[in-house]
């Protein structure tokens, strides 16, 4: 879910106003100086870095030369030092150069630590990336082959300088780093930066307690997980090492501990909620069993080297099952930390679909408003607000007017990331006589704590429209045009394709192909694409 934008991403513009960042005022803050009102600002980036070298024994130019890093790594280094200095943590030149301190390499430091940090805009020139800076000494005499090689390097350096300059200018205009995936300088780093921002918004959205209260108040969710763990304690908890991926407030970890787990490792990517979970665990005197760790499960160091578990338990499901892409974290944990013969709980997930009548799209309301027709408004709302977007809504079972179909089923103990990332499925929907036109398809999911691993009692968590409501609700896909009511001999033939969103990897793109017939080449007469972002 989307979180608040970080204020450090806004206002990346240089001010020419009086007393601000005009050309006559110092605007470059040295790295080793905390950002305070009394800090001395320098007129050029080179002067600010020279101050660090002469007064703080921290020569950034020498560090960059020794580490042989590029533009994006220089950005990470600057932001890492800024953060460390603000926290009162000493960063030394020696620890960076000899590799003792590698924390700066984390992609999270692509996010600017300090708002309006002019130094980031001038890294190319200040650190010698600019071939026109004039700082380089005249080279000694060279052989013809050396001269040729040097000219080639100079041309390559000039191309890089131009690329960096283009990127820098685009950053000033756009006001953000996020939409720079097509920038000429280091597209891979720009793509990683985009994902860092997506992850930051995602985990920020889970840092507040409102969403956790909503999930903890979801009775079908809580009853299913508690029942599965407690009724099958001998299989899932007692004497077991349990890993809770995306632990949130730690509720599943504590249930597992209460059911007799030997040790529980609870991991959450939101530092704020991990800290809250740690406090909750201590509040319930379970600190000897449950250890909470903040950080991405995929990141080295979040989990101790050599760690193994018997059971992975996670409430990873998003809207339409796969929205938020948290399942990939669970699969990573399974492949890296689960012992042979261990299990992932829940261990089966199914996506279901059915057709819905006109009530599902709400257009009927506009047919008669105090005796007046407002169908024009209803039509515009459908065109502007519903189509092309997948909508998360509570769908009434009374709106469903076709049979159900299973789109796909995942065995979470075996499925691969690629099999989840993109897949297609064909299915048929039928109607009983008199059920009317099909205006939309509704998608929901079930997850199972199956008898394969829950030998005492199998438990099913369903989010279907005919069952008790959950915070996941259902996902509604409104058809471009309604499908006429089906005869007894007819079926609505469909192919549905799920794939990660091309711009936001935590989002979903769903392609629906459908019709009451199918061509010999396998194509369908109608198609629609939906996004869930």
From TrEMBL:
GO terms for molecular function: histone methyltransferase activity; protein-arginine omega-N asymmetric methyltransferase activity; zinc ion binding. Its EC number is 2.1.1.319. It is an enzyme of class 2 (transferase). Residues 143-173 form a coiled coil. Residues 63-112 form the Protein arginine N-methyltransferase 3-like C2H2 zinc finger domain. Residues 348-515 form the Protein arginine N-methyltransferase domain. Residues 242-342 form the Methyltransferase domain. Keywords: Coiled coil, Cytoplasm, Metal-binding, Methyltransferase, S-adenosyl-L-methionine, Transferase, Zinc, Zinc-finger. One of its GO terms (biological process) is methylation. InterPro entries: ANM3-like_C2H2_Zf (IPR049482), Arg_MeTrfase (IPR025799), Methyltransf_25 (IPR041698), PRMT_dom (IPR055135), SAM-dependent_MTases_sf (IPR029063), Znf_C2H2_sf (IPR036236). Residues 1-11 have a biased composition (Basic and acidic residues). It catalyses: L-arginyl-[protein] + S-adenosyl-L-methionine = N(omega)-methyl-L-arginyl-[protein] + S-adenosyl-L-homocysteine + H(+); L-arginyl-[protein] + 2 S-adenosyl-L-methionine = N(omega),N(omega)-dimethyl-L-arginyl-[protein] + 2 S-adenosyl-L-homocysteine + 2 H(+). Residues 1-24 are annotated as: Disordered. GO terms for cellular component: cytosol; nucleus. SUPFAM superfamilies: beta-beta-alpha zinc fingers (SSF57667), S-adenosyl-L-methionine-dependent methyltransferases (SSF53335). Gene3D superfamilies: Hnrnp arginine n-methyltransferase1, Vaccinia Virus protein VP39. This is type I protein arginine methyltransferase. It comes from Chloropicon roscoffensis.
């Amino acid at each position: 879910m989307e979180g608040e934008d970080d204020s450090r991403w806004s206002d990346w513009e240089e001010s020419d106003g009086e007393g601000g960042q005009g050309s006559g005022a110092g605007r470059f803050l040295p790295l080793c100086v905390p950002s305070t009102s009394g800090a001395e600002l320098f007129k050029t980036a080179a002067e600010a870095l020279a101050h660090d070298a002469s007064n703080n024994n921290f020569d950034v130019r020498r560090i960059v030369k020794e580490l042989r890093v590029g533009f994006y790594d220089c950005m990470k280094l600057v932001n890492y030092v800024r953060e460390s200095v603000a926290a009162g943590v000493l960063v030394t030149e020696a620890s960076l150069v000899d590799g003792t301190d590698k924390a700066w390499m984390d992609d999270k430091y692509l996010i600017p630590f300090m708002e309006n940090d002019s130094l980031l805009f001038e890294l190319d020139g200040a650190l010698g990336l600019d071939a026109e800076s004039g700082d380089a000494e005249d080279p000694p005499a060279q052989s013809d082959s050396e001269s040729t090689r040097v000219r080639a390097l100079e041309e390559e350096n000039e191309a890089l300088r131009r690329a960096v300059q283009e990127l820098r200018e685009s950053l000033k205009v756009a006001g953000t780093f996020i939409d720079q995936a097509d920038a000429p300088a280091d597209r891979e780093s720009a793509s990683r930066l985009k994902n860092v921002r997506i992850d930051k918004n995602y985990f920020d959205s889970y840092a507040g307690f409102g969403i956790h209260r909503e999930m903890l108040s979801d009775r079908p969710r809580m009853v299913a997980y508690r029942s599965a763990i407690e009724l099958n304690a001998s299989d899932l908890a007692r004497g077991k090492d349990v890993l809770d991926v995306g632990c949130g407030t730690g509720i599943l970890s504590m249930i597992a501990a209460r059911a007799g787990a030997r040790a529980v490792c609870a991991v959450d990517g939101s530092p704020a909620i991990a800290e809250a979970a740690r406090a909750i665990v201590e509040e319930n005197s379970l600190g000897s069993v449950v250890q909470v760790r903040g950080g991405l499960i995929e990141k080295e160091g979040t989990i101790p080297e050599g760690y193994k578990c018997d059971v992975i338990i996670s409430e990873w499901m998003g809207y339409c099952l796969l929205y938020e892409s948290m399942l990939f974290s669970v699969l990573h944990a399974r492949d890296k930390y689960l012992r042979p013969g261990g299990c992932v709980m829940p261990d089966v997930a199914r996506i279901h679909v059915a057709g819905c009548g006109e009530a599902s799209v709400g257009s009927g309301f506009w047919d008669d408003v105090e005796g007046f027709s407002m169908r024009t408004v209803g039509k515009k709302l459908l065109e502007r607000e519903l189509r092309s977007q997948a909508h998360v809504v509570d769908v009434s079972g009374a709106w469903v007017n076709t049979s159900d179909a299973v789109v796909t089923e995942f065995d979470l103990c075996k499925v691969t990331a690629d099999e989840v990332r993109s897949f297609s499925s064909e299915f048929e929907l039928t109607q009983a006589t008199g059920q009317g036109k099909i205006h939309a398809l509704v998608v929901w999911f079930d997850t199972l704590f199956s008898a394969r691993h829950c030998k005492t009692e199998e438990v099913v968590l369903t989010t279907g429209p005919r069952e008790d409501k959950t915070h996941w609700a259902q996902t509604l896909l409104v058809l471009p045009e309604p499908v006429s009511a089906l005869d007894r001999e007819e079926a609505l033939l469909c192919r549905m394709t799920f794939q990660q969103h091309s711009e936001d990897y935590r989002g979903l793109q769903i392609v629906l192909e459908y019709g009451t017939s199918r061509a010999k080449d396998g194509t369908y007469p109608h198609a629609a694409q939906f996004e869930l972002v």
